[in-house]
Amino acid sequence: MEIINSVSEMQQRMLAARAQGKTISFVPTMGFLHQGHLSLLHEGRGRGDLLVLSIFVNPTQFGPNEDFDSYPRDLQRDLDLAQTTGVDIVFTPDASQMYPSGSATTVSVAELTSNLCGASRPGHFDGVTTVVNKLFNIVLPHVALFGMKDFQQLAVIRKMVVDLNMPVEVVGMPIVREADGLAMSSRNSYLSADLRQQGLALIAAVRAACGAAAAGETDAQQLIAQVEQIIIAQSDARIDYIQICHDLTLQDMTLVDEHAVLLLAVKFGATRLIDNHYLLQPVVS
Length: 285
Ligand code: AMP
Description:
This protein is an alpha/beta fold. The chain has two domains: 2-173, HUPs (Rossmann fold); 186-274, Pantoate-beta-alanine ligase, C-terminal domain (Pantoate--beta-alanine Ligase, Chain: A,domain 2). Helices cover 37% and strands 19% of the residues. The protein is built from ten helices and nine strands. It has helices at 7-19, 35-45, 75-84, 95-98, 116-120, 124-139, 151-163, 193-199, 201-214, 220-232, and strands at residues 2-4, 24-29, 50-55, 89-91, 143-147, 169-173, 237-246, 260-268, 271-278. α7 (151-163) links the parallel β5 (143-147) and β6 (169-173). α6 (124-139) packs across α7 (151-163) and α9 packs antiparallel against α10 (220-232). The chain is globular and about 55 Å long. The structure holds adenosine monophosphate (AMP). Adenosine monophosphate is lined by residues 29-30, 36-37, 39-40, 146-147, 149-150, 173, 175-176, 183-186. Adenosine monophosphate (AMP) binds next to α2 and β5.
Protein backbone atom coordinates (compact mmCIF):
# COMPACT_ATOMS: atom_id res chain seq x y z
CA MET A 1 0.00 0.00 0.00
CA GLU A 2 1.36 3.39 -1.00
CA ILE A 3 0.97 6.44 1.23
CA ILE A 4 1.18 9.79 -0.54
CA ASN A 5 1.11 13.21 1.13
CA SER A 6 1.96 15.47 -1.76
CA VAL A 7 -0.76 16.82 -4.07
CA SER A 8 1.49 16.94 -7.12
CA GLU A 9 2.91 13.45 -6.52
CA MET A 10 -0.61 12.07 -6.11
CA GLN A 11 -1.84 13.70 -9.29
CA GLN A 12 1.17 12.41 -11.26
CA ARG A 13 0.62 8.91 -9.85
CA MET A 14 -3.03 8.94 -10.89
CA LEU A 15 -2.31 10.36 -14.36
CA ALA A 16 0.19 7.54 -14.87
CA ALA A 17 -2.37 4.95 -13.69
CA ARG A 18 -4.95 6.33 -16.12
CA ALA A 19 -2.39 6.28 -18.94
CA GLN A 20 -1.94 2.56 -18.23
CA GLY A 21 -5.70 2.09 -18.61
CA LYS A 22 -6.40 1.52 -14.91
CA THR A 23 -9.81 2.38 -13.47
CA ILE A 24 -9.73 4.27 -10.20
CA SER A 25 -12.24 4.01 -7.38
CA PHE A 26 -12.09 6.55 -4.61
CA VAL A 27 -13.37 6.84 -1.05
CA PRO A 28 -12.86 10.29 0.50
CA THR A 29 -12.93 10.37 4.32
CA MET A 30 -11.85 12.38 7.34
CA GLY A 31 -10.31 9.26 8.87
CA PHE A 32 -10.89 7.58 12.25
CA LEU A 33 -12.24 4.73 10.17
CA HIS A 34 -15.15 2.53 11.21
CA GLN A 35 -17.26 -0.15 9.52
CA GLY A 36 -19.22 2.51 7.62
CA HIS A 37 -16.04 3.67 5.90
CA LEU A 38 -14.94 0.07 5.36
CA SER A 39 -18.22 -0.78 3.60
CA LEU A 40 -17.44 1.97 1.08
CA LEU A 41 -13.93 0.59 0.64
CA HIS A 42 -15.20 -2.98 0.14
CA GLU A 43 -17.60 -1.78 -2.54
CA GLY A 44 -14.91 0.40 -4.11
CA ARG A 45 -12.50 -2.56 -4.18
CA GLY A 46 -14.80 -4.33 -6.63
CA ARG A 47 -15.34 -1.29 -8.82
CA GLY A 48 -11.84 -0.33 -9.91
CA ASP A 49 -8.34 -1.59 -10.56
CA LEU A 50 -6.92 0.87 -8.06
CA LEU A 51 -8.65 1.66 -4.77
CA VAL A 52 -7.76 5.07 -3.34
CA LEU A 53 -8.64 6.25 0.17
CA SER A 54 -8.15 9.85 1.20
CA ILE A 55 -7.83 10.86 4.82
CA PHE A 56 -8.09 14.59 5.32
CA VAL A 57 -9.83 16.44 8.13
CA ASN A 58 -10.96 19.33 5.99
CA PRO A 59 -10.83 22.60 7.95
CA THR A 60 -13.06 24.52 5.56
CA GLN A 61 -16.14 22.40 6.29
CA PHE A 62 -16.05 23.13 10.03
CA GLY A 63 -17.68 26.24 11.46
CA PRO A 64 -15.73 28.48 13.88
CA ASN A 65 -17.41 26.92 16.92
CA GLU A 66 -17.31 23.35 15.67
CA ASP A 67 -15.02 20.45 16.51
CA PHE A 68 -12.17 20.73 13.99
CA ASP A 69 -9.45 20.74 16.67
CA SER A 70 -10.93 17.90 18.68
CA TYR A 71 -12.03 15.77 15.71
CA PRO A 72 -10.74 12.23 16.42
CA ARG A 73 -7.58 11.26 14.55
CA ASP A 74 -5.56 8.02 14.56
CA LEU A 75 -3.58 7.72 11.33
CA GLN A 76 -1.70 4.53 12.21
CA ARG A 77 -4.89 2.67 13.06
CA ASP A 78 -6.49 3.95 9.84
CA LEU A 79 -3.53 2.79 7.78
CA ASP A 80 -3.70 -0.68 9.34
CA LEU A 81 -7.42 -0.92 8.55
CA ALA A 82 -6.87 0.37 5.02
CA GLN A 83 -4.19 -2.24 4.43
CA THR A 84 -6.45 -5.09 5.53
CA THR A 85 -9.29 -3.75 3.35
CA GLY A 86 -7.25 -3.87 0.15
CA VAL A 87 -6.59 -0.16 -0.33
CA ASP A 88 -3.85 0.49 -2.91
CA ILE A 89 -3.11 4.15 -2.22
CA VAL A 90 -3.82 6.33 0.81
CA PHE A 91 -3.74 10.06 0.13
CA THR A 92 -3.14 12.03 3.33
CA PRO A 93 -2.33 15.64 2.46
CA ASP A 94 -1.95 18.28 5.13
CA ALA A 95 -3.97 21.49 5.06
CA SER A 96 -1.13 23.58 3.64
CA GLN A 97 -0.91 21.19 0.66
CA MET A 98 -4.64 21.41 0.02
CA TYR A 99 -5.03 25.13 0.70
CA PRO A 100 -1.81 26.95 -0.10
CA SER A 101 -1.91 30.59 0.92
CA GLY A 102 -3.66 32.62 -1.73
CA SER A 103 -6.32 29.97 -2.54
CA ALA A 104 -9.33 32.01 -3.63
CA THR A 105 -11.78 29.58 -5.26
CA THR A 106 -14.88 28.08 -3.69
CA VAL A 107 -17.30 25.62 -5.29
CA SER A 108 -20.84 26.25 -4.12
CA VAL A 109 -24.04 24.33 -4.87
CA ALA A 110 -27.18 26.46 -4.45
CA GLU A 111 -30.70 25.42 -3.35
CA LEU A 112 -29.98 21.88 -2.09
CA THR A 113 -27.71 23.42 0.54
CA SER A 114 -30.22 25.91 1.95
CA ASN A 115 -32.16 23.40 4.09
CA LEU A 116 -31.27 20.88 6.82
CA CYS A 117 -27.52 20.85 7.70
CA GLY A 118 -27.00 23.72 5.26
CA ALA A 119 -29.28 25.90 7.39
CA SER A 120 -27.69 24.94 10.71
CA ARG A 121 -24.06 24.83 9.51
CA PRO A 122 -23.50 27.92 7.35
CA GLY A 123 -20.64 27.44 4.89
CA HIS A 124 -20.34 23.71 5.63
CA PHE A 125 -21.34 22.50 2.19
CA ASP A 126 -19.16 25.04 0.40
CA GLY A 127 -16.27 23.48 2.30
CA VAL A 128 -17.42 19.98 1.32
CA THR A 129 -17.99 20.69 -2.38
CA THR A 130 -14.74 22.63 -2.68
CA VAL A 131 -12.64 19.88 -1.11
CA VAL A 132 -14.38 17.07 -2.99
CA ASN A 133 -13.88 18.97 -6.24
CA LYS A 134 -10.19 19.41 -5.44
CA LEU A 135 -9.84 15.75 -4.44
CA PHE A 136 -11.51 14.65 -7.69
CA ASN A 137 -9.04 16.81 -9.65
CA ILE A 138 -6.12 15.27 -7.76
CA VAL A 139 -7.26 11.62 -7.59
CA LEU A 140 -8.99 11.58 -11.02
CA PRO A 141 -11.40 8.79 -10.03
CA HIS A 142 -13.75 6.97 -12.38
CA VAL A 143 -16.03 6.14 -9.45
CA ALA A 144 -16.37 7.74 -6.01
CA LEU A 145 -18.27 6.23 -3.08
CA PHE A 146 -20.17 8.16 -0.41
CA GLY A 147 -22.40 7.10 2.49
CA MET A 148 -26.12 7.76 2.74
CA LYS A 149 -25.49 8.53 6.41
CA ASP A 150 -24.71 12.05 5.11
CA PHE A 151 -27.82 12.09 2.94
CA GLN A 152 -27.70 15.78 2.06
CA GLN A 153 -23.97 15.64 1.32
CA LEU A 154 -24.56 12.81 -1.17
CA ALA A 155 -27.36 14.78 -2.89
CA VAL A 156 -25.18 17.91 -3.06
CA ILE A 157 -22.21 16.01 -4.51
CA ARG A 158 -24.41 14.30 -7.10
CA LYS A 159 -25.70 17.73 -8.11
CA MET A 160 -22.20 19.21 -8.32
CA VAL A 161 -21.03 16.33 -10.52
CA VAL A 162 -23.97 16.77 -12.90
CA ASP A 163 -23.84 20.56 -13.00
CA LEU A 164 -20.08 20.68 -13.59
CA ASN A 165 -20.04 17.76 -16.06
CA MET A 166 -17.54 15.86 -13.96
CA PRO A 167 -16.71 12.44 -15.44
CA VAL A 168 -17.13 10.62 -12.13
CA GLU A 169 -19.73 8.00 -11.24
CA VAL A 170 -21.06 8.72 -7.73
CA VAL A 171 -22.18 5.67 -5.75
CA GLY A 172 -24.29 6.03 -2.57
CA MET A 173 -23.94 3.32 0.06
CA PRO A 174 -26.38 2.34 2.84
CA ILE A 175 -25.90 3.48 6.45
CA VAL A 176 -23.91 1.02 8.55
CA ARG A 177 -25.16 0.82 12.12
CA GLU A 178 -23.94 -0.55 15.43
CA ALA A 179 -25.73 -3.71 16.62
CA ASP A 180 -28.11 -1.55 18.66
CA GLY A 181 -28.98 0.66 15.68
CA LEU A 182 -26.83 3.73 16.32
CA ALA A 183 -25.51 4.95 12.97
CA MET A 184 -21.73 4.58 12.95
CA SER A 185 -19.85 7.85 13.06
CA SER A 186 -16.33 8.93 14.00
CA ARG A 187 -18.05 11.41 16.32
CA ASN A 188 -19.66 8.59 18.36
CA SER A 189 -16.28 8.36 20.12
CA TYR A 190 -17.13 11.64 21.87
CA LEU A 191 -20.18 10.15 23.60
CA SER A 192 -20.18 9.12 27.26
CA ALA A 193 -22.02 5.85 27.99
CA ASP A 194 -25.04 7.84 29.15
CA LEU A 195 -25.16 10.11 26.09
CA ARG A 196 -24.62 7.15 23.79
CA GLN A 197 -27.64 5.48 25.38
CA GLN A 198 -29.67 8.66 24.88
CA GLY A 199 -28.49 8.76 21.26
CA LEU A 200 -30.38 5.53 20.59
CA ALA A 201 -33.49 7.73 20.56
CA LEU A 202 -32.60 8.51 16.94
CA ILE A 203 -33.03 4.93 15.74
CA ALA A 204 -36.03 4.48 18.06
CA ALA A 205 -37.62 7.53 16.42
CA VAL A 206 -36.75 6.26 12.93
CA ARG A 207 -38.34 2.90 13.74
CA ALA A 208 -41.47 4.52 15.18
CA ALA A 209 -41.93 6.87 12.23
CA CYS A 210 -41.31 4.17 9.62
CA GLY A 211 -43.72 1.89 11.50
CA ALA A 212 -46.40 4.58 11.52
CA ALA A 213 -45.83 5.37 7.84
CA ALA A 214 -46.03 1.67 6.96
CA ALA A 215 -49.32 1.50 8.87
CA GLY A 216 -50.74 4.26 6.68
CA GLU A 217 -49.88 7.59 8.34
CA THR A 218 -49.09 10.02 5.52
CA ASP A 219 -49.21 13.36 7.37
CA ALA A 220 -45.61 14.56 7.71
CA GLN A 221 -46.43 16.87 10.64
CA GLN A 222 -47.97 13.98 12.60
CA LEU A 223 -44.91 11.85 12.00
CA ILE A 224 -42.54 14.68 12.95
CA ALA A 225 -44.52 15.28 16.16
CA GLN A 226 -44.19 11.60 17.04
CA VAL A 227 -40.44 11.69 16.41
CA GLU A 228 -40.08 14.86 18.47
CA GLN A 229 -41.77 13.22 21.48
CA ILE A 230 -39.26 10.37 21.40
CA ILE A 231 -36.28 12.71 21.11
CA ILE A 232 -37.31 15.21 23.78
CA ALA A 233 -37.82 12.38 26.26
CA GLN A 234 -34.00 12.30 26.47
CA SER A 235 -32.77 14.76 29.06
CA ASP A 236 -29.71 15.98 27.11
CA ALA A 237 -31.21 16.06 23.63
CA ARG A 238 -31.33 19.39 21.80
CA ILE A 239 -33.06 19.17 18.45
CA ASP A 240 -31.29 20.80 15.54
CA TYR A 241 -33.88 19.63 13.01
CA ILE A 242 -36.45 16.92 12.41
CA GLN A 243 -37.72 17.12 8.85
CA ILE A 244 -39.36 15.02 6.20
CA CYS A 245 -37.94 15.91 2.80
CA HIS A 246 -38.12 14.81 -0.81
CA ASP A 247 -35.07 12.68 -1.55
CA LEU A 248 -34.10 14.55 -4.73
CA THR A 249 -35.06 18.17 -4.01
CA LEU A 250 -34.57 18.06 -0.21
CA GLN A 251 -37.66 20.27 0.07
CA ASP A 252 -40.03 19.68 2.99
CA MET A 253 -42.99 17.44 2.20
CA THR A 254 -46.48 17.58 3.69
CA LEU A 255 -47.63 14.15 2.56
CA VAL A 256 -45.44 11.08 2.64
CA ASP A 257 -44.77 9.08 -0.51
CA GLU A 258 -41.93 6.83 -1.66
CA HIS A 259 -39.62 9.87 -2.00
CA ALA A 260 -40.07 10.89 1.64
CA VAL A 261 -36.98 10.75 3.85
CA LEU A 262 -37.00 11.48 7.57
CA LEU A 263 -33.85 13.41 8.48
CA LEU A 264 -32.74 14.21 12.02
CA ALA A 265 -29.93 16.16 13.59
CA VAL A 266 -29.83 16.21 17.38
CA LYS A 267 -27.19 17.36 19.81
CA PHE A 268 -26.49 15.22 22.86
CA GLY A 269 -24.29 17.38 25.03
CA ALA A 270 -21.67 18.77 22.67
CA THR A 271 -22.01 15.92 20.18
CA ARG A 272 -24.23 16.40 17.15
CA LEU A 273 -25.65 13.17 15.73
CA ILE A 274 -27.44 12.79 12.39
CA ASP A 275 -29.55 10.00 11.01
CA ASN A 276 -32.06 9.47 8.22
CA HIS A 277 -34.31 6.86 6.68
CA TYR A 278 -36.75 6.53 3.80
CA LEU A 279 -40.12 6.46 5.58
CA LEU A 280 -41.65 3.80 3.36
CA GLN A 281 -38.66 1.47 3.43
CA PRO A 282 -38.37 -1.18 6.15
CA VAL A 283 -35.84 -0.54 8.90
CA VAL A 284 -33.49 -3.48 8.66
CA SER A 285 -31.40 -3.19 11.82
P1 AMP B 1 -16.43 11.09 7.11
O1 AMP B 1 -15.10 10.49 7.42
O2 AMP B 1 -17.34 11.17 8.30
O3 AMP B 1 -16.34 12.37 6.32
O4 AMP B 1 -17.16 10.06 6.15
C1 AMP B 1 -16.54 9.62 4.96
C2 AMP B 1 -17.57 8.87 4.14
O5 AMP B 1 -18.05 7.76 4.89
C3 AMP B 1 -18.79 9.73 3.79
O6 AMP B 1 -19.21 9.45 2.46
C4 AMP B 1 -19.81 9.26 4.79
O7 AMP B 1 -21.15 9.42 4.36
C5 AMP B 1 -19.46 7.80 4.92
N1 AMP B 1 -19.98 7.26 6.18
C6 AMP B 1 -19.77 7.77 7.42
N2 AMP B 1 -20.45 7.05 8.34
C7 AMP B 1 -21.10 6.07 7.66
C8 AMP B 1 -21.97 5.01 8.03
N3 AMP B 1 -22.32 4.79 9.30
N4 AMP B 1 -22.45 4.21 7.06
C9 AMP B 1 -22.10 4.41 5.76
N5 AMP B 1 -21.29 5.39 5.34
C10 AMP B 1 -20.80 6.21 6.27
